[in-house]
């Protein structure tokens, strides 16, 4: 071997050059016969396999490992995608649905923003803030607007309320405006009632609630049609005291009669609008199939038999957008600061209210609960409840229907006689004892009410 090496080293330059030429020719001939060498490929079990990377050679084991890693990565990515898709299916949140829900949430947030807009200036806001602000509520504080934004809002939104026709109850009712302390969410579960009575009452008026349950709001007055009675109340200092006897009494009533809806807003006269809207909200969410609804107060005598038999049943199939009561036409805002119905110029600058029905008692078709509640989300609040509902109806382009007899609905006290009370629907300012007395006398003379001396 040493001699062979030495002989190679002792070759002349010409001999070495000749040897190189011969080696290159030999390789060229081999490459010509074996395309694997020419294509930078390799043999596997007698097959010519192209490496995919010219100019570099790979060992068969390295190539196999590289391909296995590729397959493992592909399988892993597929499994991750499958798990993610499965999670979306379980939650019911496909991308298209996520987009829709995000859009609905944004729309709801926009509506809530508009619901807080009002024409109050800062000084008037401070005067009303204490009486209007709720307790423990997520309702935003009413905001004041500068004139330019106010004009823009009125021209773009208040003049066109068509959004209410496009929005569904599901979008509106995702959150409770106020926490329920007492609720009856299943009151309409078994059947759609013919009539729901929303009776606004102060927490302390226990005697009034008892008298009403025994008389004109008793379930028996509707026969088999179906009547639901609900007392709408908020909270005050008496109900929020520790170990409050009044609150315990209310809860006992609720447990016994299942007819009290209590939420955590401040129960005051200036919050009657809010109270009414919470009744509308309850109908919209828990009793949307109700045929008719009546909103009234606890100091009212209501001849529900006349209401059902003479006014509502003769209408046949319940119609939509029906609203009736004592019509208040061409009423002007009261600018007397000493008046109970005082309306500041800054709050309502107009010279006339739209036609509205006295808040002592009005009746409407069930579909209007949702329409009015939706409208209220973008119409600035007023503390006069019946005026405000009339404004909502005007923005919805719904004209209240005049009652067939102008003496049916009364916002004053009508002197009792069985003849008079058998032919009216409401009378105002009635004491709980009188409610029971008048109802019992009317029932005993219902077949000949006008032949008695009382």
UniProtKB/TrEMBL annotation:
User: Which GO BP terms apply?
Assistant: lipid metabolic process; protein O-linked glycosylation
Q: Does the keyword Transmembrane helix apply?
A: yes
The UniProt regions of compositional bias labelled Basic and acidic residues, in chain numbering, are 11-32
Where is it mainly found? Golgi
Q: Name one GO molecular function term.
A: N-acetyl-beta-D-glucosaminide beta-(1,3)-galactosyltransferase activity
Region (Disordered) residue spans: 1-32
Q: Which residues cross the membrane?
A: 72-94
Q: How does it sit in the membrane?
A: Single-pass type II membrane protein
Q: What is this protein called?
A: Hexosyltransferase
The organism encoding this protein is: Cyprinus carpio carpio
The root-end lineage is: Eukaryota, Metazoa, Chordata, Craniata, Vertebrata
